[in-house]
Design goal:
This protein has one domain. Helices cover 45% and strands 0% of the residues. It contains three helices and no strands. The longest helix is centred in the N-terminal third of the chain and has 17 residues. It comes from Chelatococcus caeni. This is Chemotaxis regulatin CheY-phosphate phosphatase CheZ.
Length: 67
């Protein structure tokens, strides 16, 4: 595991050097993302499934994966 993390760190460091080093990356402008607050039914899209929904994974299905 440690070897894998060191490998990844070396590759990321190499990529940063190719792009001009860490100092050049700090000059990039930060991008602000505005999230719109959803209202009504749109706010429920990620909520619990409704009784009429099809192809829905139940909690029992998820629990069976860990048994």
């Amino acid at each position: 595991m440690v070897g894998t993390l060191k490998f990844i760190e070396e590759r990321v460091t190499s990529m940063m050097e190719i792009w001009g080093g860490p100092d050049s990356l700090s000059s990039l402008a930060e991008v602000e993302v505005e999230e719109e607050e959803e209202k009504g039914d749109e706010a429920l899209l990620n909520g619990p499934p409704l009784a009429g929904d099809v192809d829905v994974v139940s909690q029992d299905d998820v629990d069976s994966l860990f048994r």
